[in-house]
Amino acid sequence: MKTLKRSVSLTSAIAISIGGMLGSGIFVLPGIAAAKTGSSIWLAYLLAAVCILPAALSKSELATAMPSSGGTYVYIERTFGPIFGTIAGIGLWLSLLLKSSFALVGFGAYLTVLVNINEGFTKYAALFFLLIILFLNIFGIKKVGKVQLVIVTISLISLGAILIFGIPRVDDALLQPVFSNGNLGLASTVAFIYISYAGVTKIAAIAGEIKKPNINLPRAMMLSLVIMALIYVSVSFTLVGNIPMETLKTDIKPIYTIANILGGTTIGYVAAIIGVITLVSMANSGVLAASRFPFAMAIDKLLPTFMARIHSKYLTPVVTIVMTCLVMALAILFLDVEKIAKLASAFMVMMFISVNACVIILRETATQWYNPAYRSPFYPFIQLFGIITGIILLVLLGFVPLMAILSITIIGFLIYLKFGKKTSRTGVLRKYGHRPALYLLYKKKNRRKRKLSNDVLINPGYFDGEILEDAGVVVPLLGNETSPEMLVEIGAALNTKDKLQVANITEVPNQTFLEAMVDENPKINSLARRFSRLAASKGINVDFESIVTHNMSDTIHDLSDQTDCDWLVVGWDGRARTGILINNPIGWLMTNINSNFALFKDNGVRYISKVLIALRPGRNDKSFIEVADRIALFYGASFTLLRVVTETIEANELEHIKASSNQLLKEAKSDCKVDITKSNDSIEAISNASASYDLLILGTPQKDNWISVLFGTGKDKFTEKSACSVLRLTIKDN
Q: Please, which residues bridge with residue 672 across strands?
């Protein structure tokens, strides 16, 4: 299979990212923004950079996890599913085309300096150049794109010259008032100019072509963000310090104005030429990027298929290019500059909120295929900051942008119902989101056997390529087990039937064909050999199969149904909480699985001779004792029932607990005893006791704080502090 060559260096990546930001954000926007907040516009640019930082970090992580895909649309579609993917695709398309429309309006203003035309005709001039851009994109003239690096370089040199000559001439009197509309004016300006930094994440679209993307991609985003923040802050400060506010607040060609003030008419003309070239170049790249969103959605069958047509000669998506330019023309004709900027910012804020949410969902669900080479620091606080500030900025943008977002959401939902409802793809959130409460009442005795779905492929190259229907225990291997053999041994110890099913499950995104993953795999061959040897040495009946799936949790659920197994035994890292908002797969299984469920945390203990079982009184103690006895018999071990009581317990109550505990052990066949420990800290007591044992058996972990309840992120404290391996049991009531 051919792959993209990684040829883009860090320097080139930074240049591409800066090119995505340099344009209307500094050539058009500062004057309108200054009217909203006064000379504090430089602070607004700085705060906007801080607000967009979480999205840059999140997108760096997402891009290294999906380096060949690129694009916010794909991240959102894979995470939230086709419905939100449809809404996101439309939102991204509109934000980019509105930003490009804004650049062309600014281009018209700069053109009036060079050509003697009435300002009323600038919109028509913008439309004329939009027509040229339309044909350039249809004809696929690649050389135009190569010129952009030169244009960016010239623009940066020009802005640098303005700073050199403009900062020494800053007039303190012109810097008053600093806040013309107070703190609220500053905050609303931050929201207004947010679109200026939107291009910082554009580099993620070519992540598959960047050298060492896990290092260079986040570096490129961070360095380009810092560079552009410095440019925006310093240039905007220079503008307000040299141009009277009464002039600046209605000026949509401020770079020409300050160049004219600092260098005279000739320098002003040069600045106008640079402005024209920069803004046309930006509009062209915007059309190029924007037209690809509806094209990709049509390929994914979320839009009419005719939108996926490619020109037979020029191999460009002609339908979506024409559609993009048509909507841009309408925006230029019927929306004023401020409304275009507000709408563009609103759609981009919405997308960046979604990007931050994607990282939280993908990390918390721990979906198997999500394995980014770069991980955002300060998780999840940096993402939560991005989401909260994004929501605040959306509110500050006002009623019209909010209504526009609501309208796009409704339109996207209707489009999905019309075109995308039949798609078989699902997002990670849907896979691991909560099922209706009724599903929890689906009892084991009422369940029906069902075959694995079409989203599952059993590799026929290992054993017989069939799942057993009469296995007592199913052991799914998810790829992160410390010792798969030890996990299978635990499964064998729990098994009351003859056969044990082991399934190595590989989860891939919905967009990946399952057949493409069926290949000779040394790791699978090694596992097959090791399990054959284990089965022979322990005298157990093990069937091993390799499975590729689009939905790991549903596949495990189907396995338990098809085999009618008594136990599912899964390797565990100590995190199994099920949150209100989202679940990780283990949390989902604990809630929805129909069989008994065992989580095994392997702390490196190879030989089990002493077992400790610690239970809260009244938690189906008899069933847990039976399981502990079965495990002890399998290993030829002894087990101890540990009861932790408070230090202030009454003597008669203590005797009652001791007597009832001994009564529980009467039917045990292995060597066993009761240990009652007085302590007000059960975690510490169990931790200290575990040092003398090889395996600690516990009941189902509990939620204990609001972060766990919301996101399911907390570590299980008993398991974390245990000195030996841990087996967490969830025994279903019949």
A: 639
Q: Report, in this order, helix, strand and coil percent for the chain, each rounded to 5.
A: 60, 10, 30
pLDDT band with cut points at 50, 70 and 90 for residue 734:
low
Neighbours of 55 (CB within 10 A): 30
pLDDT at 309 over 70: yes
Q: Give the separation between CA 726 and CA 719, rounded to whole angstroms.
A: 6
Looking at the chain, which residues constitute the CATH 1.20.1740.10 domain(s)? Answer: 10-370+380-420
Q: Find, among 662, 608, 605, 600, the residue nearest to 631 by Cα.
A: 608
- How many other CB atoms are found less than 10 A from the CB of residue 673? 13
Q: Which residues pair with 570 in a beta bridge?
A: 599
Return the top range by mean pLDDT from 370-379, 445-454, 638-647: 638-647
> Token pair 């996926």 is at which residue?
308
Q: How far is CA 196 from CA 20, 30, 72, 496, in A?
A: 9, 10, 17, 65
- Could you count the other beta carbons within 10 Å of the beta carbon of residue 78? 28
| DSSP reduced 3-state for 209 | helix
Tokens, residue 71: 């694009």
Check if CATH label 3.10.620 holds for domain 442-571: no
Per-residue pLDDT tens over the stretch 458-482: 554 444 446 777 888 989 888 778 7
Confidence of residue 44 (pLDDT cuts 50, 70, 90): very high
Q: What is the pLDDT of residues 501-543, one digit of tens each?
A: 898 888 776 545 565 555 557 888 888 889 989 999 888 999 8
Class of the CATH-defined domain 10-370+380-420: mainly alpha
Whether 29 and 337 have beta carbons less than 8 Å apart is answered as no
Report CA-CA distances (Å) from 151 to 158, 223, 277: 11, 20, 7
What is the C-alpha separation between 407 and 348, in angstroms, rounded?
15
Among 360, 314, 294, 507, residue whose Cα is nearest residue 58: 360
Give the model's pLDDT for residue 464: 41
552-606 per-position pLDDT tens digit: 666 776 776 666 788 888 887 765 444 434 445 555 565 566 678 888 988 888 8
Phi, psi of 250 (to 5 degrees): -115, 10
Reduced to 3 states (helix: H, G, I; strand: E, B; else coil), residue 25 is: helix
Measured CA distances, 252 to 191, 196, 257, 705 (Å): 18, 15, 9, 52
Q: In the predicted model, is pLDDT for residue 658 greater than 60?
A: yes
Whether the upstream peptide bond of residue 30 has omega within 30° of 0, thus cis, is no
CA–CA separation, 351 and 55 (whole Å): 9
Res 515: pLDDT: 55
Which pLDDT does position 701 carry in this prediction?
55
Q: pLDDT at residue 364 above 60?
A: yes
The tokens describing 240, both together, are 């307000």
The CATH number of domain 603-734 is 3.40.50.620: yes
Residue ranges of the chain that CATH labels 3.40.50.620? 603-734
Q: Which residues pair with 638 in a beta bridge?
A: 610
Segments of 478-565 assigned E as strands: 499-507, 541-549
C-alpha span between 509 and 583 (Å, rounded): 18
pLDDT at 288: 77
